[in-house]
Design brief:
Layout: E1 3-7, H1 12-23, E2 27-32, H2 35-49, E3 53-57, H3 63-74, E4 83-86, H4 101-129, E5 132-137, H5 150-167, E6 174-181, H6 188-191, H7 207-219, E7 224-227, H8 229-252, H9 256-272
Parallel strand pairs: 1-2, 1-4, 2-3, 4-5, 5-6, 6-7
Bound molecules: NADP nicotinamide-adenine-dinucleotide phosphate.
Length: about 280
């Protein structure tokens, strides 16, 4: 049975991911700070879907606690993890020059450093096994943020990082995808004292729809999943120059990175082929 690790899996979009992956038969590892909420979501998923659910309470702002999650992903503790969903995220709503340094640091720690470190911990095992998926939750704010929003900058990093990682994976059996959504109807807005769009509003997405679209886009081999037709239309236009550049780079094709990617894919496929001549025994 495959296992998925979801950060921020005790509420909102992360809990929607956890429920949907459990419905597809995945065992789960749920990571977040609030143990009580983790246990509650885990119990309801075990009861509803009959899969195994581990809870791994960890504060992704704390380096030693990130290491704990890295060790779980690398297989140092527990079995292999086939799907990593880097969903945990925090948003500071103050304009940059008014925000507390601690809140700004939390955004970098959770939205950037944890995504980088957990992806780095998960990928080698996935590449060795020739299968695996990394989903990084970015945001439409990564394309156009509110003035002075460091959150937007952190999500722009997630988009760019995932794009680079995905470009190194063709032929390996491993996928990376970034989720880009406008506002999603989770509790975070009410908690921050902000208004929430009405159900059915074209500007707002439901968590379950974001997850559905993501899984659909993964099946189509995409590395970007955009929820909501309005946001998708805008992103398609914004992505045109990047896609064109990527095509030119691919056609040029003689770059060292491209050669390295191809060589690695060939080596991995050889290692996975039984009775391969280069394998001892
Ligand atoms: N909601 C939206 O409108 C929207 C739109 C676009 C993108 N997104 C992105 O979607 C993702 C999920 O958003 P959401 O609306 O579901 O948010 P949410 O309801 O605020 O949930 C955030 C999750 O992250 C966990 N978390 C926060 N800080 C953490 C830390 N230091 N260490 C470990 N876990 C931590 C929280 O659990 P604990 O508090 O227990 O740690 C919680 O499970 C985020 O990356 C967000 O930026 C959201």
């Amino acid at each position: 049975m495959s296992t998925a690790l979801v950060t921020g899996g005790n509420t909102g979009l992360g809990a929607a991911f956890a429920r949907r992956l459990a419905a597809e038969g995945y065992n789960l590892v749920l990571v977040a700070r609030n143990r009580e909420r983790l246990e509650a979501v885990a119990a309801s998923i075990r009861a509803g879907h009959g899969v195994e659910v581990e809870v791994l309470p960890a504060d992704l702002e704390v380096p030693a606690e990130r290491v704990m999650v890295e060790r779980r992903l690398a297989g140092t503790i527990g079995g292999p993890v086939d799907v990593l969903v880097n969903n945990a995220g925090v948003q500071n709503y103050e304009v940059f020059d008014k925000a507390s340094p601690a809140a700004l640091k939390a955004e970098v720690d959770v939205n950037i450093t944890a995504v980088l470190q957990l992806t780095r911990a998960a990928l080698p095992g996935m590449l060795d096994r020739g299968r695996g998926t990394v989903v990084n939750v970015a945001s439409f704010a990564g394309y156009l943020g509110a003035p002075g929003s460091s959150y937007s900058a952190s999500k722009a990093w997630v988009l760019s990082f995932t794009d680079s990682v995905a470009a190194s994976l063709p032929g390996t059996g491993v996928q990376a995808l970034a989720i880009c959504a406008g506002p999603i109807r989770t509790d975070r807005h009410a908690r921050a004292g902000r208004s929430v769009g009405a159900p059915g509003s074209p500007l707002w997405s439901e968590p379950a729809d974001v997850v559905d679209r993501c899984l659909n886009d993964l099946r189509k081999g995409r590395s970007l999943s955009v929820s909501g037709w309005i946001h998708r239309t805008v992103v398609n236009v914004l992505e045109l120059p990047r896609r064109s550049l990527r095509t030119v780079a691919r056609l040029a094709g003689s770059g060292r990175e491209q050669q390295a990617v191809r060589a690695r894919a060939a080596k991995q496929s050889e290692a996975r082929t039984p009775n391969s001549p280069s394998r001892p025994g």
